[in-house]
Amino acid sequence: METLYISLIVLLFLLAIADLVVGVSNDAVNFLNSAIGSKAVPMRTILIVAGLGVLVGAVFSSGLMEVARKGIFNPEMFFFDEIIIIFLAVLITDILLLDFFNSIGIPTSTTVSVVFELLGAAVVISLLKLYERGEGFGGLEQFINVEKASEISFGILISVFIAFGVGAVVQFISRLIFSFDYHKKLKYIGGLYGGVSLSAITYFILLKGTNSITFLDQNVVEQVLENKLWIIGFSFLFWTVISQMLIQVFRFHILKVIVVLGTFALALAFAGNDLVNFIGVSIAAWQSFILWQEAFLASGVLPSQFLMDGLSGEVQTPAYLLVIAGAIMVVTLWFSSKAQYVVQTGVNLGRQGEGQERFKPNALSRTVVRYSVFVGQTFSQVLSDPVQDKINNRFSYPEKAFSYKKGVAKPAFDLLRASVNLVLASILISLATSYTLPLSTTYVTFMVAMGTSFGDRAWGRESAVYRVAGVFNVIGSWIATAAIAFTAAGLLSLIIWFGSYYAIAVLLILALFSIVRSAIRHSKRVKYERDHKKFNKTDIITINEITKESSENIVKIISGVNDLLLDVVNNLGYHDLSRLKKSLKTQEELELIIDELKDNIFYYIKSLEDTNVEASKFYVLTLDYLQDMVQSLAYITRSSHTHVSNNHKNLKFSQIRDLKSVQRDLDEVYNELVKAFQSSEFDSIQTLITDEKRVLDKISDLLQKQIDRIRDTENSPKNSKLYFGILLETKNLTKTSIALLELFKEYYEEARQEF
């Protein structure tokens, strides 16, 4: 029996390592957003600073895993075997839940997930115990710390609205003071700004440290808490002087200093606070095992007879476990691609200016934006025109505000906003800590970033509906986190209760399968995005570069069109609905690529040199022809899917044979076309045009052949409609590709002259 439970404890620690990996991947958004979005320092430096913060925070963590042991449920009401079931259910659920949110790039709260997982598992086990005793469910309160769970939920909810509101107001005032051209003002008042910011960060680190570091004397902790106003005042004076010296004497960029130190501070707090969310459950299980083992050796008490009242006391976690956990967190921070994917969500939603939007607008976001515009217009009527002009001037940023090296992506927002993000998050978390108010560091940091982007007018009329939809999606996922965590952990604990060790084995296999599948899908998505990465829109300034970019687009689209046409014709011949559904997804991907290219037309044209404006017409026409080809294929794909989905008669063998014949001819032409554009050898364009015209003649013959069939033998209107539709759209597709080649042939001569 003892060996069995040792195996379960080892299993729980292995799960804790997996939980650390997925947890850090999600929570990295807390402290990386501002530094990465503003490009304050190189990425390597950001990761080094954040890694040091994580390592220091983990090492100096208190090691008191209170939430996991007694924050949500009353451990003295549960036996050892029941506690182990709760902890197993929580860890399996947490890994799967966080990995899911990492895969879709949504930052969620590890605090909320672990709290509601513990709550869900404990509630289910409590109800089972009450049922076995024959008692009513009214006795649930003796098992569950309802007051604590309610306090945490309410505190987290309130912190979301406060963080957004405070972020918007402070950023608006900061921009009014500094504007986007803040460099001159920083020479004079940068010391004051640095004093405020760095003293806030210092107090944040000090407050979190006194709450976490166990070797500090209690008198020191009390002195810090009692004299916090003096500490803040002295820090302000000290950092104001230091900041002014850094600016005037050493020519340091004070905002970069603030961003770097703020990143370190939030990383430290993250490790010190959220470590409990990752290893707290496993540590609590291990401590439970030690308590039971001692009792078992002394009196032979069974796991089902040993109450866990020993968890109610304070039990320290060994320092070496904290060091190991910190090291795993740092390694994950450096190598997790999912962490970078989650970070990009916050960065993209808060970026300044336009660009590709990740989230689609919905009815709620449209309504909110519409009424916000109305309120803004109403409020603007109260202000005089000179005042409005003055405010607008502070928020109009010159291009140089976001200038960057050619070929390198520009910062998503400037250093001023990045510093405000970090300082405000530090202040809000510090205040909540000093007043022992519950909050989620993920929610606070994310909503501060969203508030500052709103207050900075980053959400313009062109992007607001997408950004608001994104914020609502993230908030919706937070609500889902609590509901899913509670339900899933409760369900798993129920399965383990009745299924015992067999259920544990099956659940672990399913969890492993789910994580591996998620990793494979994520790897494919990263590869797809890398392969489809477009030319930097700000780099295309000459007709030669336009020609190169257009060649890449043509290869990408025509290869996709050719492959998809082959799949659709084959799947239609087999009357295979499942494969036609996959063809529909491929078609949607092609349409998405076209939409992204057209979204960037404005930027391509704007970046062209004045002498090459004519090239913009070439680029626009190229995209127009590619879009027409994709639209023709969309009709073929969707009508084929609808035909098979409605269980209409199969096309006749002769019809499928004719369609395949046309497809083979086009396949030969398109393969040669792709080779020509990949190698930039365009001398064969005229030959390709001639070959495609022969395909047109063949399609015309097949159309006449089908007309004769209808008059003689054809008796299926649905088949005729589908067959005619496919031939006509294939004809349009071929005509469009001919027009595209003729256009490219015309402009190729001009591009060759530039060489």
TrEMBL record:
Membrane association type: Multi-pass membrane protein
Principal cellular location given in the protein's record:
membrane
Pfam annotation, one family: PHO4
- Would the keyword DNA-binding be found if you checked this record's keyword annotation? no
Localization:
Membrane
Segments passing through the bilayer = 47-65, 77-98, 110-131, 152-174, 186-207, 228-247, 253-271, 318-335, 415-435, 471-495, 501-520
Q: Which UniProt keywords are listed?
A: Membrane, Phosphate transport, Transmembrane, Transmembrane helix, Transport
Residues forming coiled coils: none
Q: Which InterPro entries match?
A: Phos_transporter (IPR001204)
Return the similarity comment: Belongs to the inorganic phosphate transporter (PiT) (TC 2.A.20) family.
Family annotation (PANTHER family): PHOSPHATE TRANSPORTER
Q: What is this protein called?
A: Phosphate transporter
Species of origin: Psychroflexus salinarum
Q: State the organism's lineage.
A: Bacteria, Pseudomonadati, Bacteroidota, Flavobacteriia, Flavobacteriales
